[in-house]
Amino acid sequence: METQTGTFAVKKGLAQMLKGGVIMDVVTPEHAKIAEDAGAVAVMALERVPADIRAQGGVARMSDPELILKIMDAVSIPVMAKCRIGHFVEAQILEAIGVDYIDESEVLTPADEEHHIDKHKFKVPFVCGCRNLGEALRRIGEGAAMIRTKGEAGTGDVVEAVRHARAVLGEIRRLQNMPDEELMAYAKSIGAPYELVKETKELGRLPVVNFAAGGIATPADAALMMQLGMDGVFVGSGIFKSGNPAKRAAAIVKAVTHYDDPAILAEVSRNLGEPMVGINVSTMPEVERIAGRGW
Amino acid sequence: MKIGVLALQGDFAEHIAMLRRLGVQTAEVRLPEHLDDLDGLIIPGGESTTIGKLAVDFGLIEPLRAFGERHAIWGTCAGAIFLSKDVRREQPLLGLMDITVQRNAFGRQVDSFEIDLEVAALKAIDGKARPYHAVFIRAPIIETVGDGVDVLATLPDGRIVAAQQGKLLATSFHPELTNDTRFHAYFLSLIR
């Protein structure tokens, strides 16, 4: 048999290797090295972390490939990068420079307000955000090989990540109790492909790896998401917007491994310095929320 | 029989599911005391730098070395790297197997691949000689093996992707990502 590359098994497989790990946003090669030394399983290469995108406003686009390449040179772990929702040419560029995963991300300004990228066309795998089961399965239907909650990026407030995790996991629990004859109507009601609804019911989980993201700032936040049933966590602004990034990064890595051991969680949570300041999502105007981006 | 799976990071749940299909008891290993009463250990795929760092932080390096002196250990991908004695860069290693490994030997994720391998040792499992479908993800290769290490599988170009030293097993690929339990059954046969 021939060698096959870019199959769904290898795309999904890399995400399986990241499970139980922490993926960290970095904006320089130095940050990337700090993240790798702290035990990150992968880094997300960006020009600005979400908290700065939020603060500075304007159009947020794919990062300069030069910066991403420098970060790829700095570390041996996988490097992810973000493209705008629906911007398949940004994705083509990221694939051409050899990033390991593309995040088609609502954190950047959407390029298409109706359609996401046809991710099946690419050899590089994609991760996409979701707020509920229907959104997760639409993205998988388009070819996403990994899913994450959207949360509310750049806030340091975990409440939206919890809401989205509970929505997805709760809907899967309800789906498991549903008789098969109800699956078609259910698929229609949540706007999800029927075959994926059926597969999710049979597996009792999403057919791909499912990480938490959007507002995780402390080891306790990370362990909370793991205890809720997520496969791993993304930490964006929470690390490099804090007082002691190296120490906080290492603590969050340990908290994800020992998420079910309160004594270890207490130990790693001590003396981490200032967390990122944060924005309370409940007092945030609707127009400033980015989780609503994506269709 | 009770087999542990190192659960610091990576696809340990996939290994546990395969072991359960073969009817053995399993345990997740995150701390040294979790190694007590195990008959063998699997070190899963994941990021070898992360697994190594967490093993150092939680005092697992020496207990794992001592475990490997007496018991069977199998490392898949990151686990194979962790079992090796040299990867030509600074990162924590167990050094239990006399093999040198090159990380990310095939390039980046877009170069990850699937291929059928001939693995003669697996014939003992069900008496049939059929190919083994292997999944390689940002995979390492085993560059050199010492005396006392047997090569179990190579790619068509001759590069080594599976090796065995007594009860220690290293594979560059991920049997836990397939439905084929033969490699797990082979590992258990080293213990029985």
In short:
Chain A has 295 residues and is an alpha/beta fold. Chain A has 13 helices and nine strands. The radius of gyration of chain A is 18 Å and the shape is globular.
What does this structure look like?
The complex is a heterodimer of chains A (295) and B (192). Chain A is an alpha/beta fold. The mean pLDDT of chain A is 96. Chain A is built from 13 helices and 9 strands. In chain A, strand 6, helix 6 (133-141) and strand 7 (146-149) form a beta-alpha-beta unit. Chain A has an 8-stranded parallel β-sheet, sandwiched between helices. Chain B has one domain: Rossmann fold (3-Layer(aba) Sandwich). Chain B has helices spanning 12-21, 48-57, 61-70, 78-83, 123-126, 182-191, and strands at 2-6, 25-29, 40-43, 72-76, 99-102, 113-117, 132-136, 141-145, 150-154, 160-165, 168-171. In chain B, the strands form 3 sheets. A 7-stranded mixed β-sheet of chain B has the order 2-1-3-4-11-10-9, with helices on both faces. In chain B, strands 5-8 form a two-stranded antiparallel sheet. In chain B, strand 9 and strand 10 (160-165) form a beta hairpin. The chains are: A alpha/beta (295), B alpha/beta (192). The interface between A and B is large, with 43 and 39 residues.
> What percent of the residues of chain A sit in helical stretches (DSSP H or I)?
40-55%
Question: How large is the radius of gyration of chain A?
Answer: 18 Å
Structural category of chain A? alpha/beta
Please outline the major beta sheet of chain B: 7 strands, mixed
Query: Roughly what percent helix of chain B?
Result: 25-40%
Cα shape of chain A: globular
Oligomer: heterodimer
State the secondary-structure class of chain B.
alpha/beta
Task: Summarize the SSE layout with pairings.
The complex is a heterodimer of chains A (295) and B (192).
Chain A: E1 4-5, H1 8-18, E2 22-26, H2 29-38, E3 42-45, H3 50-56, H4 65-74, E4 79-84, H5 88-97, E5 101-105, E6 126-130, H6 133-141, E7 146-149, H7 159-176, H8 183-190, H9 194-203, E8 209-211, H10 219-228, E9 233-235, H11 237-240, H12 245-257, H13 262-268
Parallel strand pairs in A: 2-3, 2-9, 3-4, 4-5, 5-6, 6-7, 7-8
Helix pairs in contact in A: 2-4, 2-12, 7-9, 10-12
Chain B: E1 2-6, H1 12-21, E2 25-29, E3 40-43, H2 48-57, H3 61-70, E4 72-76, H4 78-83, E5 99-102, E6 113-117, H5 123-126, E7 132-136, E8 141-145, E9 150-154, E10 160-165, E11 168-171, H6 182-191
